[in-house]
Amino acid sequence: MPIPTITSFLTATDGSAGRDKSDLRPVPDLNYAPTAAEYNAIKNALIALQNVRGLSDGSTAGSDLARVITLEDQLYGRRQGISAVNDFERTIALDVPITGSAGAGAALSQANTTGVQVSGHPGRIILSTGTTATGYTYANPSLYDNNLGTFGALKVGGGAISLRWVVNVVQLSAVAQEFILRVGMGDPTSNVPSNGAIFSYDRLTSVNWQARTYNGGGNTLASGGTNVPVATGWWMLEAIINTGGTQVDFYVTPSGGATTLIGSGVATLPPSDSTCPVIQIIKSAGLTAVTVEADLVSLKQIFASARW
After folding, report:
1. Per DSSP, what are the bridge partners of residue 162?
2. Scanning 7, 72, 245, 252, which has the fewest C-beta atoms within 10 Å of its C-beta?
3. Which residue has the higher pLDDT, 216 or 278?
4. Rounded CA gap, 134 and 281, in Å?
5. Main-chain dihedrals φ then ψ at residue 198, nearest 5 degrees
6. Are 284 and 261 in contact (CB under 8 A)?
7. Which domains does the chain have, with CATH numbers?
8. Cα–Cα dist 53/181, whole Å
9. For 74-86, what is the HEC assignment?
10. What predicted TM-score, i.e. pTM, was given to this entire model?
C-alpha cells in the first residue's frame, strides 16, 4: 500500500498566507493524512495550549507551535529527517569524546548519571575553569540515537537544522571572577571557533546573551532580536539554521520563562566544514573556580530531499 501524501496538511487556513512556511513542510512518511477540518481542530487546540503557556503562535516559521504542528518533536520521519540527542547519562568517554582543559583544577566531570531525576535534570556534565586566572574547559559531546559521530556530525546545506542546548549558568561573571561562556556548534577547540553558530556570554562585551555566526575565522554578530540579560539558572538555547545555511536564528528560554529571539546571523556557514556541539568556559580574571553545567544537547534536521 503506498504511503499517502500529506502535501495539503499544512496549507495555511488561518489568514497567514504569504508568511514563510519553510519550517511547516509536511512529514512525508506519516501513515495518515488529516482532513482540513481535523487539521484546524488540532491546530486550534494547540494554539489554545500555546497561549496558556505564553509561547509563540503556530503561523510563525520556527515557533514552538509550528514544530508541534508538523509533529517534528514526536514523529520525526526518518525518510526526510534525523533526530539525535545526548542526555549525559552514560560515561564521559562515550558522551564527550572530545574535551580539553588547562589550569589547576580545570576539568570536565559528570553528575547524576543513574537516571534518577534531581531537580528535573538527569545526567549532567560540569565544566570547571579551575583555580587559575586563565583556566578553561571545553567539551564536544557526541550525538547518539541515530549513530551520528562527534566531529563531522553537523554540516549545513542539506536541510533545516535545530540545535538545542540546556545549560545552567551557575554564577555571573564579575570583575573579581571574569569568564566567557560559549555554547552552540563549532570547531572542537578551546579558542574562538573558525566556523559555526555560537551563543556567548561575555560580560566585558555585554551583560546580555549574544550570538555570532563564524565562517573561515570571520564572524558576524546576530542582530534584529531582543536583548535578554543573562541570569543564573537553567536556560534552553536553540539555534535554527535554514536549509541553505545562509541564516541562523538564535533563541533563548529561561527556565519557566518565554522564548525570545535574540538575533539572526546572515553570514553563510560553509557547507563543507565539519562542526560539532561545543561548550566552553574560559577564565580571564580571578583565582576561584567557575563552573557551568549542561543537561542536554539535541539535533533535529529536516532534509531538503527525502532519502527515497
Report:
1. 240, 300
2. 7
3. 278
4. 10
5. -130, 130
6. no
7. 7-75 (no CATH), 79-303 (2.60.120.200)
8. 29
9. CCCCHHHEEEEEE
10. 0.74
- Distance CA(130)–CA(176), nearest Å, equals 15
Burial of 120 (0-12, 13-18, 19+ CB in 10 A): exposed
Look-up of cell digits 580574571? 285
Q: What is the dihedral of CA 151, 302, 238, 52, to 10 degrees?
A: -150
Report, in angstroms and rounded to the nearest whole number, the Rg of the chain calculated over CA atoms: 20
- How would you write the chain as a 3-class SS string? CCCCCCHHHHCCCCCCCCCCCHHHCCCCCCCCCCCHHHHHHHHHHHHHHHHHHCCCCCCCCCCHHHHHHCCCCCCCCHHHEEEEEECCCCCHHHHCCEEEEECCCCEEEEECCCCCCCCCCCCEEEEECCCCCCCEEEEECCCECCCCCCCCCECCCCEEEEEEEEEEECCCCCCCCEEEEEEEEECCCCCCCCCEEEEEEECCCCCECEEEEEECCEEEECEECCCCECCCEEEEEEEEECCCCCCEEEEEEECCCCCEEEEEECCCCCCCCCEEEEEEEEEEECCCCCEEEEEEEEEEEEECCCCC
* Distances 26 to 79, 96, 110, 205 between C-alpha atoms, Å: 12, 34, 39, 41
Cell numbers 497561549: residue: 51
Q: What is the pLDDT of residues 95-148, one digit of tens each?
A: 888 889 999 999 999 887 655 556 678 789 999 999 999 999 999 998 865 444
Contacts of 93 (CB under 8 A, 6+ apart): none
- Output the nine-digit C-alpha cell for 264: 539572526
Cell of 169: 549558568
> Cell for 308?
527515497
- Return the number of other C-beta atoms located less than 10 Å from residue 145's C-beta: 13
